Amino acid sequence: MINLTFEEKWEKIIACDQAYDGLFYTAVKTTRIYCRPSCRSRKPKKQNVEFYLDKEKVEEDGFRACKRCKPEVDQSPNTQFVQSVITFLINHSNEKIVLQDIANHVGVSTYYLDRLFKQETSETPRMYLEKVRIDKATHLLKHTNKTNLEVCYEVGFQSASNFYKVFLRLKNCTPSEYRQKETIK
């Protein structure tokens, strides 16, 4: 089960973030249609959205699959494996994680995990974990008054220098610059 707040899930669907496909579904109460987070269809009003973690549950509640993103169709035979790894990364993103921890969780060797995950997502588990941590950091920077250092440690980085380096690489700005840009909006 994935541990994201409603607001974090909402941000993922607004960004059409393909990385979260299969981890949760967006159901629109007014149209009775459900989609993947990456669906490019027009975004619904926030108050009309419900999130489901399970495809069977959303269909059981009377929603039908979107004809554009086809959330009922698995895209790869390894989808379940990748979703298991991603769920583990998201749920444990604030902890110190090594590749062996993930491999133990899914029951494969570190070599096989790294190779298959990269083949399916075009990223290593470490790169993916960094993206998850930076996503959480941007959410905290935008919605809290915590210092950059507090955010750094809360999202799971072990050092401030690594946090700043990764943040700059993924967002093309420092955490302080990001916060300033978001408060101007």
Automatic annotation (TrEMBL):
It comes from the Bacteria. It holds the Pfam family Ada_Zn_binding. Residues 83-181 form the HTH araC/xylS-type domain. InterPro entries: Ada-like_dom_sf, Ada_DNA_repair_Zn-bd, Homeodomain-like_sf, HTH_AraC, Me-P-triester_DNA_alkyl-Trfase. One of its GO terms (biological process) is DNA repair. PROSITE patterns: HTH_ARAC_FAMILY_2. GO terms for molecular function: DNA-binding transcription factor activity; methyltransferase activity; sequence-specific DNA binding; zinc ion binding. SMART domains: HTH_ARAC (SM00342). Its cofactor is Zn(2+). This is Methylphosphotriester-DNA--protein-cysteine methyltransferase family protein. Keywords: Activator, DNA-binding, Methyltransferase, Transcription, Transcription regulation, Transferase. It comes from Psychrobacillus lasiicapitis.
